[in-house]
Amino acid sequence: MENEEKKEISRRDFMKITIGAIGGLIGLGFGIPAIAYVVSPALGKSQAQQWIQLGATSKIELGKPTLFKVTITRQTGWIVNQEELAVYVLSEDGRDYVAMSNVCTHLGCRIRWIAGQDQYVCPCHNGIFDKQGNVVSGPPPRPLDRYETKVENDQLFILGG
After folding, report:
1. Model's pTM, two decimal places?
2. Which residue range forms the structural domain that includes residue 87?
3. In terms of domains, do 33 and 112 share one?
């Protein structure tokens, strides 16, 4: 014969357990989505580079760098920014295109093409680049950054940006 003891829970203890359980469920209901919102941008895959359309290849004069400006949208986490991207495009034969950034590799100033000197000039610290984007003189440590290009239906595209 077994003696079974029944342990009774007082009304006060029952209310404590019930209120604690309800509070925990509410906390989980708000906490899990909040944590997912904060952590998900860091865990998400980085955006793959995409092809950016610059414009018609007919706008490019042979042997003369042509400046193209496009507005692109970048998303970092939940922050969305509109940026203007400027690219010099050079073609010597109308089939092969070289796309170069218009940002100096020294301190990030905008360069410009001076046709009379046949050079790109950085106004900040007198950095000078040749037509191909190579450093001629001044403080820039390396040539202008280049973009991969492709042509589809007479439209020029660059990769990334």
Report:
1. 0.66
2. 51-159
3. no
